[in-house]
Amino acid sequence: MPVRVLIVDDFEPWRRFVSAALQKVDSQILLEVSDGLEAVYKAEDLRPDLILLDIGLPTINGIKAARRIHNLSPESKILFLSEEGSPEVAEAALEAGGAGYVVKSDAGRELLPAVKALMEGKRYVSTRLAGLISFITPNNDGSENSNRRELLVEGQGCSGKQASDVPAGLRILLQN
Fold first, then answer.
1. Crossing angle (nearest 10°) for helices 107-119 and 12-22
2. Sign of the dihedral defined by the CA atoms of residues 138, 126, 104, 176, in that order
3. Concatenated DSSP letters for 64-124?
4. Is 22 left (phi over 0), alpha (psi -120 to 50) or beta?
5. CA-CA distances (angstroms) from residue 138 to 24, 41, 68, 93, 96?
6. I need a surface site. Which of 23, 82, 84, 117 has the fewest CB within 10 A?
7. What is the mean pLDDT of each successive set of 10 residues along the chain, which is 176 residues long?
């Protein structure tokens, strides 16, 4: 069954790039929207499997939208796609309900692996941010779970390591 996807970005050429990239995997683009509030409404309405969400959006930003979406459609996985490469911003996005974070300049090589990881119930962080962020995951009731997730480093056998123990530049997946 195809992955049902909602794409949220205010830059239409970027949405086209993402849609084209997703044609390489079994996906169905449900809708493309350009602002945060519309993303919240459409996520509640459509209940997509995956939401690709920018941070810099009109009406409400992607982090605020993710918090609302996480409460309204907790089964939807949120993958942030942002120009922002700051560990602090990525951490805030993941704390808001994101299951993954890809820096847009890395999307050409990391978008599809990130989508695959999220659909397998794992978390994904851009290579450039690996080892630089920690996670506080929201529960469905809005409270936070501050337990660190077990790190899985592809091909490295580093299960159980803290993010600071993982060499920078390795892609990390966080198992739910």
1. 60
2. negative
3. HHHHHHHHH-TTSEEEEEES---HHHHHHHHHTT-SEEEEGGGHHHHHHHHHHHHHTTEEE
4. alpha
5. 31, 20, 12, 11, 7
6. 23
7. 96 97 95 98 98 97 98 97 96 96 97 97 94 61 39 34 43 42
Q: Give the H or E element holding residue 41.
A: helix 36-46
Q: How many helices (H) and strands (E) does the chain have?
A: 5, 10
| Rounded distance between C-alpha atoms, residue 110 and residue 102, angstroms | 7
Instruction: Report whether 171 contacts 123 (CB < 8 A).
Output: no
> Among positive and negative, which fits the CA dihedral 74, 79, 84, 87?
positive
Is the pTM above the cut of 0.85? no
Write the single-letter amino acid at 120.
E
The domain locations on the chain are 3-175
Tracing tokens 């350009």 back to the chain, one arrives at 34
Within 8 A by CB and 6+ apart from 108, the residues are none
Tokens (6 digits) for 113: 């692996």
